[in-house]
Amino acid sequence: MATKYKRILLKLSGESLMGNQEFGIDPNMLKHYANQIKSLKDAGIEIAIVIGGGNIFRGLQAKDSGIERVQGDYMGMMATVINGMALQSAIEGLGIYTRLITAIKMEQIAEPYIRRRAIRHLEKGRVVIFSAGTGSPYFTTDSAAALRANEINADVILKGTRVDGIYTADPEKDPTATKFDKISFAKVISLGLNVMDMTAFTICKENNLPIIVFDINKKENLTKIIKGEPVGTLVE
Fold it and tell me: How far apart are CA 58 and CA 42, in angstroms?
């Protein structure tokens, strides 16, 4: 199969892993993600993944619970490691070699992040899961995705969400919101659209790394994207 992209970074939200639950990991969503990733692997794509931790703990919620911001951010990073371990298990259950890599050292669980080694894993056809964010507080997993994607020379960031692209307003709240098929980095900034946090967005803009925002819940979407079909919204 002819593909438009060779190496991608897939950004998955932790919240999506909850499915219809209030928190935690829905085994059906885990299976759905794993099957999606397998379809890319079967097409010969090199895959890196960054997954959030919002289904377990969000650093932003910490201030309401009396937990200090920095401590809360580290707790959020730990949550992404738990999700990474679950995703690794699900993908390996389909017979695909993976490597879980963490920005915070925990040798018994995952490899420490070493850029050249991560790239070598990708070249060898292993799925690489980056966890623990950037390893520093005050940064989101969006920032981690933007940073890692540029470090591994990914062709594109695929940001899987619950909506099928970027709209003029939140389509879940505003029925009159209209969708963009393609939009420039500058226009996203001028309209104040919430695609990623500004740190992540700026890293992509400065390095000309395109972002595709799409609905991860439709199982054929990822395959269509790598073939070059117009799915979701392309930011470039």
Answer: 33
**Per-residue pLDDT tens over the stretch 33-85:** 999 999 999 999 999 999 999 899 876 666 677 888 899 999 999 999 999 99
Taking the domains of the chain in order of start, what are their residue ranges?
7-235
Please give the pLDDT value at position 170.
81
pLDDT cut 90: percent of the chain above it: 72
Calpha distance 135→153 (Å, rounded): 20
Closest CA to 73 of 51, 55, 101, 53: 53
Q: Which CATH number fits domain 7-235: 3.60.10.10, 3.40.1160.10, 3.90.1150.10, 3.20.20.70?
A: 3.40.1160.10
Rg of the Cα atoms in the chain: 17
Tell me the pTM: 0.94
Overall average pLDDT of the 163-190 stretch? 88
Q: Computed from CA positions of residues 211, 214, 47, 59, in that sequence, does the dihedral angle turn out positive or negative?
A: positive
* Contact status, residue 91 vs residue 34, Cβ threshold 8 Å: yes
Nearest to 158 by CA among 74, 92, 231: 231
Query: CA quadruple 59, 88, 122, 37: dihedral positive or negative?
Result: negative
Among residues 41, 39, 94, 51, the alpha carbon closest in space to that of 224 is found at 39
